[in-house]
Known about the structure:
Residues 232-315 form the DHHA1 domain. By secondary structure, the protein is of the alpha/beta class. Helices cover 39% and strands 18% of the residues. The strands form two sheets. A six-stranded mixed beta sheet has the order 6-7-8-9-11-10, sandwiched between helices. The chain starts with a helix and ends with a helix. 43% of the residues are buried. The structure holds guanosine-5'-monophosphate and manganese (II) ion. The site of manganese (II) ion (MN) has 6 residues, from loops.
Amino acid sequence: MSLLEEKLQGVKTAVILGHIHPDGDCIGSCLGVYNYVKDEFPGIDINIYLEPPAEKFSYMRYFDEIKTSLPKELPQADLCICLDSGDKDRLGGFLPLLENAKDSLVVDHHITNIGYGRRNVIAPDASSTCEVLYDQVLDAEKISRETAVCLYTGIVHDTGVFQHSNTSGKTMAIAGKLIDMGIPFSDIITDSFYKKTYVQNQIMGRALLESVCFLDNRCIFSVIRKRDMDFYGVTSKDMDGIVDQLRVTEGVECAIFLYETAFQEFRVSMRSNHIVDVSKVAAYFGGGGHIRAAGCTMSGRIHDVINNLSLHIEEQLKTASSL
Length: 323
Ligand code: 5GP
Ligand code: MN
């Protein structure tokens, strides 16, 4: 019996939650489990609650069934399944659904996850929550083609199309099994990962144009202000990929991308190549993530935010060079 099947014994109502600003792995894992339960356990009343997901993911079945606001009367689910959310706070406005549920299952791959569920499956070595689902939570034999599309999406997004250091032989083997199910793997990658709208390209161009190198060109940062976001008509959902483009600048170890969410409040995304553990830097400022990809929210003037981050990065670079 798969772990999910075990947890679903006697369950009549279930809810699935992910993290705020849901990304490909979050949406893929939530819709993956949703599709699986709909296929295999049709008697269970199950709902997904997420912040509004990007339209580019609408090829996944049941995308339109995602609920984006809390119901007026808070339901008490028999089981709450939290996916890809490194901590409770990242569940955002949907946290009450977890607190009110009778039982909970947390599935994640964030190294900073302390295990806030009744049952926790946390695999920091896994590329993505979708990989953990395939490997440890679902019965591979019972995964439908529609579920496979969702899981493949999550793996593709969190590995940056099998590029990041979190990609393992196991990741590739699982992706291979999903491909063998006949999913449109090429379209999934093009349409959900590489394709950009015109304004998304414009805002990325603007960010690259205004980027600044520091710490002897080993770091690079760029900031997009609220007024620029308004000018181009973009939202947080349009910022995907900017920090990854900064990271591949020749000679750069660490890339930082900030965008303003309110007056003197910034979402921070960090990436590193070989040395800096950005999850440590992010965790220091109340965020989290992975060694090579992490984020947090910071307040203050841009100059101070960059200076504060820079101090931590410089310290890690110094320690590494003295080893
Ligand atoms: P991104 O830079 O793409 O927003 O995030 C990179 C990684 O760090 C993702 O795995 C994301 O889930 C995680 N992350 C980003 N921001 C936060 C945060 O504020 N708190 C925690 N715990 N993790 C974060
Ligand atoms: Mn993930």
